[in-house]
Amino acid sequence: MPQSPASPSLKTLAAALGVSVATVSRVLSGQAERYRISVATRNRVLEAASASGIVVDQLARSLRLRRTLSIGLVIPDISNPFFAQLARQIERHARRHGYSVLIADSEEDAEVEAQAIRLMLSRRVDGLILAPVGTPATSAPLRSLGARPCVLVDRLLDDPPLPAVTSDHRRGAEIATLHLIERGHRRIACVQGSPGTFANDERIAGWRTAMAASGLPCGPERVAGTGYSIDAALAAAHALLMRGERPTGILALGNVLALGVLQAARDARISIPDDLSLVAFDDQLWAAVTSPPLTIIEQPIEALGREVLELLLARIASPTGGPPTRNILPVRLIERGSVRDLRPKIPALVPISHRAADPSDNATRRVAAP
Amino acid sequence: MPQSPASPSLKTLAAALGVSVATVSRVLSGQAERYRISVATRNRVLEAASASGIVVDQLARSLRLRRTLSIGLVIPDISNPFFAQLARQIERHARRHGYSVLIADSEEDAEVEAQAIRLMLSRRVDGLILAPVGTPATSAPLRSLGARPCVLVDRLLDDPPLPAVTSDHRRGAEIATLHLIERGHRRIACVQGSPGTFANDERIAGWRTAMAASGLPCGPERVAGTGYSIDAALAAAHALLMRGERPTGILALGNVLALGVLQAARDARISIPDDLSLVAFDDQLWAAVTSPPLTIIEQPIEALGREVLELLLARIASPTGGPPTRNILPVRLIERGSVRDLRPKIPALVPISHRAADPSDNATRRVAAP
DNA sequence: TTGTAAGCGTTATCAT
DNA sequence: ATGATAACGCTTACAA
Domains (ranges, CATH) in chain B? Predict the structure, then answer.
């Protein structure tokens, strides 16, 4: 902010007090002790400082100190609740450690991401937290991160072997799929987000593992979806539901995607969970009040944020700190009401196809506080 | 990032090329023309620059230029979907104008907010966008903003008379209340967010206006709630629903609050919209798939983001640009299924108290695409 | 057409 | 216990 009452600098203060800028600097940066500044001058400086409302210029300070006490955060979509919550945690922890956060939205676009990284580096952030788009060949700015303090979150990247913190996407999908299989489902499909993206592909892999282990079909025709938007999910769900043998269970590999599936089922007058069961990823406040409440795989967002920041601070402190850690956090399934148990209660007495919705299904079960 | 292959600077490049830093600077900042640099050297510099992957140090540049091409964004809760979406719009527009965004979460706490502002100023952001907590006496850093490029968003502040962009909270609440009154509701209560906060108090005022105009009771006992959390909303809704004369309609003054009301009604086995009607604020993707789909007041988030950024850029360009503008954007009501029409269809033939839920109610009406 | 040098606001080294 | 001063990496008069 160039203009206005010309924000006072150390020089101004020094002049006013008849001391040198060095002295003012030493006091204001808490080095009074170390430099044995007399208590008298120290107080004079402190007083004048607070009186004049001086703020030491971090730009100049950073230039001189060669560190900015700031980190960069590049995520694909700030408005996606998962990333919004993650960003909040990261900012919160960063702040507590004295760091500021420069944020950028890569819009799930590799080029935008590359620009964002370049910009953050040019601003000399001390470190970078990145949820990489990661679908095509990794960009030049991205490769350059190998040598710097940078931690990935939510998504991995093979090429620059960077440390990362993610939740156990694969196991999550496996758990979700098993949950359905155990309840008698055999035709289980996936509504995916951005294919090629780590979290997405891992989840697909988990689903496939569980399906294959039970000898169930898990070909690519059972996976639909082109991105993490509600429209993409709507289209994907429609496609899956229009097939000849309609799936009895769907995995929605992201919270926004679940909304699309819900909407598509409603449009097609397909009742969840009566006609179709659904397990979604990422718990959200609203997941407990949809109709029906959603059975979901919950990611430990607070832990993700905390750990990624701690890892980054560690890398900043010692950039040569061993091989890239990969921290994989466990997820858990929260059972609510979107999965129907297809197993007959009294086997063979009631033909499945004629059975009415079982009122003991957990469709309206009270949910645990989020 | 201090260490690593010592990011090359202009000096390095200049030395390698046998030209002066000045020349490199002039070329790299696109001033080749103005300084009549020969095409030959210009190309040599450009080539060497892209080859070495140089990034000009914005810190030093900003120090010299006395502007950072960065803005600060301080909001009460990044993870609140409304603010997350707003942040996304602001970042997007800022990026397009060449600005970076420094973000901070004030946690709805005046002290944290004050610190965040101080920090951003010390980092010399060119301008500040702020959704002020604004409940208690305004802090010193906040007051100091009067003289700088700063625009408020979503919430107003009287004291430093700053330009602001908000949606028409008051009118929104009025519309919502009238919507209920027109459908025969007479006991209408509010579940509020943080009292003392501009948006909240304006909404209360709008409700009160509409109620008073119809001669309906609108005392403080009909307003409950202590903050924008789901737990607060849960408690508030419970309190309202336990009263002797239970309201037939509730206004939830925020999207998270609506979730609390929904949950509370479910807990108390009160059916929405049969036994209780609900109008909420802030449209969200999930609002169309709750049970029932929510009738809501939608805020023009994209426009809010765009306009606040444009206003800020204008203030940065000419800080003395006239009196503080107050831009109030219109909201609109989206009718879905959470409001019941209490007017008898054939007056006096069917006693209201015995009337079954009217199947023509819009409880399951298809919603417009969000 | 290009180089020299001052200066942006700090901090750290070396004196005193 | 404190002051001068160089340096951080860049931009821009002013010189040449």
Answer: 8-64 (1.10.260), 68-167+302-331 (3.40.50.2300), 169-299 (3.40.50.2300)
